[in-house]
């Protein structure tokens, strides 16, 4: 069933993502009223009407496209954490972050995106990264490569001798333990900076515009689409336990993503304190 769906209906998923953004996100960009912005766990953890309504839109359209599928969306999990368990089940699961980079969205910064991935038993089979304000759509299908606006992309390898450009978990969202891990990247040969939208940072690695990522949180909606995108572009990833990050299990954190395998290993070993 899934193979047939992937062969037949990928364009329909793209259309669903674009329609959700056009209906619920783009009209609110730089037009948000105060009552349309709320806090979840604190002042840096924001949610807007665009997040909630776009997720509802996508939940309806994606499950219509693939009957019997489930949705694990950021806002649904916030309302009911048990929803996350669907990732460990047997039915196909849509993993949705309706507005990745909500802080940027609220601030009027165009660097936000909608993330959608399709997974079965923890395997990510296809993904869509859509940045409507930038007019960028990145897609990936397992075994079929990664594309941006229809053009095949390759992550390549870092320039020999150049500092590794690494985006790391933002200090606003890290614990003291996280920061101790990330401080190990403060070494010669590494140029680290805090990340913005996780989805767009993955896209930068897939395009070879960044060399690596170091993330400290496990939320599937932030990582699923990007992990497939980078992998299909030629990149690699690993947790500090030297095994791949998976959306259907508990993972050792942090984990590293690189535009090639050597880069992912280099960043992983630095995070382990072995670089």
Task: Note down, in words, how this protein is organized.
With 275 residues, the protein is α+β, with helices and mostly antiparallel strands. The protein has 9 helices and 14 strands. It has a 7-stranded mixed β-sheet, sandwiched between helices. Strands 11-10-12-14-13 form a 5-stranded mixed β-sheet, with helices on both faces. Helix 2 runs antiparallel to helix 3. The longest helix has 17 residues, at 49-65. The protein is globular. The termini are far apart. It catalyses: a myo-inositol phosphate + H2O = myo-inositol + phosphate. This is inositol-phosphate phosphatase.
Separation, N- and C-terminal Cα atoms: 45 Å
Number of domains: 2
How confident is the prediction overall: mean pLDDT?
95
* Major pleated sheet: 7 strands, mixed
CATH topology of the largest domain: Fructose-1,6-Bisphosphatase, Chain A, domain 1
Topology, number of strands:
14
CATH architecture tag of the largest domain: 2-Layer Sandwich
Order of helices and strands: HHEEHEHEHEEEEEEHEHEHEEH
């Amino acid at each position: 069933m899934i193979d047939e769906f992937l062969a037949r209906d990928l364009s329909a998923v793209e259309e669903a993502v674009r329609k959700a953004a056009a209906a619920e996100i783009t009209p609110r960009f730089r037009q948000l009223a105060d009552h349309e912005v709320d806090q979840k766990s604190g002042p840096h953890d924001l949610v807007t009407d665009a997040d909630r309504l776009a997720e509802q839109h996508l939940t309806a359209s994606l499950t219509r496209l693939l009957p019997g599928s489930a949705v694990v969306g950021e806002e649904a999990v916030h309302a009911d954490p048990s929803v996350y368990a669907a990732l460990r089940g047997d039915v196909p699961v849509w993993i949705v972050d309706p507005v990745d980079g909500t802080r940027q969205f609220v601030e009027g910064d165009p660097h936000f995106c909608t993330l959608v991935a399709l997974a079965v038993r923890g395997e990510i089979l296809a993904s869509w990264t859509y940045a409507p304000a930038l007019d960028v759509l990145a897609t990936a299908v397992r075994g079929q490569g990664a594309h941006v606006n229809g053009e095949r992309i390759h992550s390549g390898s870092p320039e020999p001798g150049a500092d590794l450009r690494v985006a790391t978990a933002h200090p606003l969202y890290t614990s003291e333990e996280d920061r101790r891990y990330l401080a190990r990247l403060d070494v010669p040969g590494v140029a680290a900076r805090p990340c913005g939208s996780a989805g767009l940072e993955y896209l930068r690695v897939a395009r070879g515009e960044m060399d690596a990522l170091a993330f400290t949180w496990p939320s599937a909606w932030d990582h699923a689409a990007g992990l497939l995108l980078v992998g299909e572009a030629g990149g690699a990833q690993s947790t500090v336990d030297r095994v791949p990050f998976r959306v259907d299990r508990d993972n050792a954190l942090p984990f590293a993503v690189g535009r090639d395998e050597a880069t992912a290993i280099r960043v992983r070993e630095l995070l382990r304190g072995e670089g």
